[in-house]
Amino acid sequence: MHVLILGGTTEARLVAGALHAAGTRVTTSLAGRVAAPRLPPGEVRVGGFGGAEGLARWLREHQVDAVIDATHPFAGTISFNAARAAAGTHVPLLALRRPGWAPVDGDDWHPVDSLDAAARALPALGHRVFLTTGRMGLAAFAHLSDTWFLMRSVDAPEPPFPPAMDVLLDRGPFTLDGERELLRRHRVDVLVTKDSGGAATAPKLTAAREARLPVVVVRRPPAPDGIEVARAPEEAVAWVLKRAQ
Ligand code: NAP
Question: What is the per-residue burial (b if ≥16 Cβ within 10 Å, else e) of 42-51?
């Protein structure tokens, strides 16, 4: 059995590791956005497929028996491409979608639908921003010249970005102590995040709650309907192994 995992997430690496250990042939596909990605066990390919048609061709040429879309919840395009390619080739598709975050008592969340909307919300909320939405899409904040940003990402951003911005190159998982210290040291007064979900980057939310900071939360983009969904890596592994019997 040959399984293609559309990856770029911790969960994708976990699934690849478990399937590889179980003796399943697994290829993980990465978009190629990160210069030195953490590589999963098994085979790895890097770069776009050329839309849904290109992905469908790849599935046929490489005799793929099942696809797991384990991409990040904000990677909207590839998930729709996977749905179309799987439907066109009749290859079973499972979407591994980690649950989103939910506010708890003490949170001061400001949900928005886009990075542009996050930028519009910011001036009323604070002027020292911890921006954790990644290095893509910084153009949305580039006009905010009266706001200071601490931007954390894996690789360095490219312009356009805000004029007053410090860059922190780092990748999760992050600790609660580390996030507390970061908010304190930089005198952050507002946090901006995507609703990525998962544990690796959640401690910033706790740290913001403790410090009574407002949090601008960008809601997830739409995902394709009518697809079988797993919520955790173990479910995705079980889905494949059941098919392999
Ligand atoms: P996207 O907007 O959904 O995808 C844009 C294009 O990139 C796709 O049409 C596809 O090109 C290519 N692509 C995306 N994921 C791919 C993959 N796993 N393998 C091969 N090609 C892929 O995705 P994105 O938001 O740019 O994210 C790119 C990757 O980074 C994803 O794999 C995702 O898991 C990871 N990631 C994204 C975020 C985020 O916030 N967006 C955060 C963490 C990790 P073709 O049409 O040419 O096939």
Answer: bbbeeeebee
